[in-house]
Design brief:
By secondary structure, this protein is of the alpha/beta class. It folds into two domains: 1-62, no CATH class; 65-142, no CATH class. Helix content is 28%, strand content 18%. The protein has three helices and nine strands, in the order βαββββββααββ.
Length: 151
């Protein structure tokens, strides 16, 4: 699994597409292990390279995983269907006062990102958290059950 928080950084919250391609997608596409340098959000610098082994499925988790620039590389896009305000509240609670300034900037950056490049309309499935567990529903881009069938 790859967390996009490991590729983003304070100064370039959504500027990680090039790093994702060069450090992860291209090596995995050649059938070789990927190596990426994860960002340390407290130290504000990239750490030592971490391996990401070739696997039949690699889960890429994070805001922007369904962006236009990498969408063609995805086999399936799952969208965690959670109100933005709830997601931001969870992040603020997780990160505490130390990252307050970050979260103030993040909210505006995320809004701008999705206004310019929305991912949800391209999701194959919507994942919703329940009181216990999750439910998975067809997403806006799910193949239609009434569409043409394959031979």
């Amino acid at each position: 699994m790859l967390h996009l928080d490991d590729l983003a950084c304070h100064r370039d919250l959504f500027g990680w597409t090039g790093r994702l391609r060069a450090q992860v997608l291209e090596p995995l596409g050649r059938g070789t292990d990927a190596h990426y340098a994860p960002y340390d959000w407290r130290a504000r610098r990239y750490g030592p390279p971490r391996p990401l082994p070739v696997a039949p499925v690699v889960l890429v988790e994070g805001v922007g995983a369904g962006r236009r620039a990498v969408r063609a590389s995805l086999a399936c896009l799952l969208w965690m269907d959670l109100p933005a305000e709830e997601s931001w509240a969870r992040g603020r609670a997780r990160d505490g006062a130390e990252q307050r300034e970050f979260w103030d900037g993040w909210v505006a950056a995320e809004r701008a990102h999705f206004a310019a490049d929305p991912s949800r309309p391209h999701a194959h499935a919507l994942v919703r958290q329940l009181a216990q567990g999750y439910e998975v529903l067809p997403g806006p881009s799910a193949p239609s059950a009434t569409g043409p069938s394959s031979p």
